[in-house]
Structure formats: C-alpha cells, structure tokens
Amino acid sequence: MLGLLYKDMRANLKGILVMLLVLIFLNGLTTVMLFVGEDNASAMNTTFIMGFCSIMAVSSFMTIGATALNIVQTDERKKWGYYITAVPNGIRKQVWAIYTFVFIAMLITFTVVYGVNFIARTVVDAVPDMLGITLTLVFFGLIMRAIELPCIIAFGSKVGSQVKGGLMLLVILGIVVYLLFGNLSWIGSEYDFWDGLFTWIRDFKFTDLALKLAAVGLPMYIVSYFISTKLYLKGVDRMEK
C-alpha cells in the first residue's frame, strides 16, 4: 500500500509542489496582511479579521481539494488498471493510496492554515482562534471527497468532472436566480452585507458544527472507500486508453 502511495506521490511530484506553493501563497498573504500592519491589525475590528481569515481558509481548502483530485486522476490507463486488478488485493491497495493521498492533502492544509492562525494570534492580539472553522472545513471537505471519489473512480475524471461541474452549475444558477428575482431587502447595503456575514462567522459555534460533521464525514469517507473498491474495475473498463 505504501509503495503505491509513494508511486502516486513520485509520479505527481510537480503537481504536489504546485499545490504546496498555492497553499503557501494564500496563507502567506494572510500573514503579510496581519504582520506588516501589526499596529493597524491590533486596532482592526476583530470581526473583519475573522472574516478575512475565513475567506483565505476556504480558498485554501477549495484549491487544495480540487488540486488533489486532479492529481489522483492522472493514472487513468487500462493497462495499469488491469495490472492492479491482477495483483493480490491490488484494487484495495490502489484505492487506499488514492484516499490516503487526498486525506493527507487535507491534513497538510489544516496544519498550514491553523498553524498560520496560531502564529498570528501570538503576535497580533486581535486575531481570533480559527480552530473551529478550520476543522469544519476539513470534515466538510472529506464529505465532498467521499461523494466525488466514487464517481471519478467509476466513470473517470471526464465524466466525474462533468457531474461535479453540473452540480456546481445548478447551485450557481440558483444563486443567480435568487439575486435577480428574490427578496434582497435583508442584505441592505454592501457594507451591511459583509459586516453581517463576518459577524455571523465570528459568533457561530463552528466547533460544535465540526464535531457533527466529523461524526458524519469520517464514516462517509470510510464507506466511500469500500464503494470505490467495488467500482474500480468498472471504471477501468470505461477507460479510453
């Protein structure tokens, strides 16, 4: 199992480096924003800082999640797939390597995002603790990957990406329709909207939500692994090369 994980990481070294660079850039931007203007940051509205850090954390998890999925999609060859099926427990080992790689990517993202937040809090008193939000993003990301990975393994990255893109398009379309025809009086001005959003983020009990998502996300991720092992061979048969 570790050999297949090492193979995937070695074969996708450039993609992993790009993933790490993006992660460092996003969180480096947060660090510069807070440290360069330390005096101003200390006097800043804590609500604004919480909102800004939350946006950067969400961006980090979304970027790394998408990048990790792109990396595990690179080995879609029938020859390799049939070879894996011929190896004793080969399918389980290959799927385990995929799920482990994605899980490690999520843990690295958590470590970097919360590590930056921890360091920032020791320097700038106004920076709030982001543990609850960061854990929420980890387990929400696991739930998303638990849904996406079986689709990708069963139908390939092309169809899997199309299904994912279609779902995202429906969500975006729903938001656009609401913005065009829905009642927006509750939003108020642009300033009121962002202030209200950041205040909600500041006051919401994300730690409680993270525990609930963990209770759902971890079992889903494990069940998703077993589903993917059953779908792997069907996915190999659908590969074009």
Explain this structure:
- It is a single chain.
- The chain starts with a helix and ends with a helix.
- With 241 residues, the protein is mainly α.
- 29% of the residues are buried.
- Helix content is 86%, strand content 0%.
- Helix 6 crosses helix 7.
- The chain contains nine helices and no strands.
- It has one domain.
- It is globular and about 60 Å long.
- The protein has helices spanning 2-11, 13-35, 38-43, 46-72, 78-86, 90-123, 131-181, 190-203, 206-238.
Number of domains: 1
Name the assembly state. single chain
- Termini separation: 25 Å
What share of the residues lie within helices? over 70%
What is the count of helical runs?
A: 9
Roughly how many Å is the radius of gyration?
A: 20 Å
Count the E strands. 0
Portion of residues in beta strands equals under 5%
Order of helices and strands: HHHHHHHHH
Low-confidence parts, pLDDT < 50 over ≥5 residues? none
**C-alpha geometry:** globular
Largest sheet: none
Mean pLDDT comes to 76
Structural class designation: mainly alpha
Quick description:
With 241 residues, the chain is an all-alpha fold. It has one domain (2-238).
Please name the defining characteristics of this protein.
241 residues; mainly alpha
Produce the secondary structure layout.
Layout: H1 2-11, H2 13-35, H3 38-43, H4 46-72, H5 78-86, H6 90-123, H7 131-181, H8 190-203, H9 206-238
Helix pairs in contact: 1-6, 2-4, 2-6, 4-6, 4-7, 4-8, 5-9, 6-7, 6-9, 7-9
